[in-house]
Write a structure and sequence with these properties.
single chain; about 300 residues; alpha/beta; D-Maltodextrin-Binding Protein, domain 2; 7-stranded mixed β-sheet; 5-stranded mixed β-sheet; globular
């Protein structure tokens, strides 16, 4: 057989390398398209983030089959302390395996939470719970009244003036939570009473209190409404304020009617301590005598 010219094998080798390169490129492209197809049609696993709105502790030396005592509050401050104190209670030890406390805005409390008695104890206001469930008292009773407090406008510039002209010239920060007395209802009610056209104001609504306060410290908004506890976190900053309401109601603690009677005194002692914690945050709360157990039958607790 006639031998091929010397250059022919070299040409064949070059063509083979070229086609191998083209095949690799096509393979990579097809793999990418298939991966995109899978990602667009299949359901990817959802990353479960930890719950940063709750705290749980165990009650020592209890049976494994006992339920947790469920508490709902509206603020994280003091929540862990309240739960830990109840976890040390010998009265709760007989009936519960732990204490789980959650905190979220009042507006997230629903009628279903109440009628299904999801919480053993929670903090709210009468008009809120009565509006959700007309026969609310069939499920819960008020056992502790929280103190009243002051709500004020705060500025880092000068004392706010209660005039339409002043509010027209300054930006305001409020919460999106329409159930919030301090950060939504009371300030807007006062603006209405002053004859201010709220639709013309520069109002920014924030999803939570932390973001609202940080925006105020940075100067992103000129004014916010808050309790006098804001002064405790001001540091070296100078704050100026103007009163909105001198006697705002913080609300009540409500307990399930179907509860072990033996735990009542432990609940009241812990709630009294919790209230003391709130009062220590600010001089703006009323005196300790403004908060007390509601029912006379609780008076025997020592």
């Amino acid at each position: 057989m006639r031998d091929l010219p010397k250059h022919v094998p070299l040409l064949l080798s070059a063509w083979q390398s070229r086609w191998l390169y083209i095949a690799c490129v096509i393979g990579l492209v097809l793999s990418g398209l298939m991966l995109m197809r899978v990602m667009s049609t299949d359901t990817l696993p959802v990353l479960q983030l930890p719950d940063h709105r709750s705290f749980r502790c165990d009650i020592a030396n209890t049976r494994d089959d006992l339920p947790d005592y469920q508490i709902l509050t509206v603020h994280y401050s003091g929540a862990e302390k309240l739960a830990r104190e109840l976890c040390q209670s010998t009265a709760l030890k007989q009936h519960y395996g732990g204490v789980n406390i959650q905190w979220f805005p009042r507006g997230e409390l629903t009628a279903r939470h109440i009628v299904e008695e999801r919480f053993d104890l929670f903090w709210s206001r009468d008009q809120r719970v009565q509006g959700l469930v007309p026969r609310f008292n069939q499920y819960y009773e008020s056992i502790f009244q929280l103190p009243h407090y002051q709500v004020m406008w705060f500025s880092q510039d000068k004392i706010p003036a209660l005039t339409p002209e002043y509010f027209d010239q300054h930006s305001i920060g409020l919460l999106e939570d329409m159930e919030s007395y301090s950060h939504f209802l009371m300030p807007l009610n006062q603006l209405k009473a002053l004859g201010v056209d709220v639709s013309r104001l520069r109002i920014t609504y924030f999803p939570n209190y932390y973001l609202l306060k940080q925006a105020f410290w940075r100067g992103d908004v000129d004014l916010i409404s808050d309790g006098s506890w804001l002064e405790a976190s001001a540091g070296d900053r100078t704050l100026y304020h103007k009163l909105i309401d001198e006697h705002a109601a913080m609300g009540h603690w409500y307990a399930r009617r179907t509860r072990p009677a033996a735990i009542d005194c432990a609940l009241l002692r812990s709630l009294q301590d919790y209230t003391g914690h709130l009062q220590s945050m600010s001089v703006g709360y009323a005196s300790a005598t403004d908060s007390a157990p509601i029912d006379d039958k609780m008076g025997g607790c020592k």
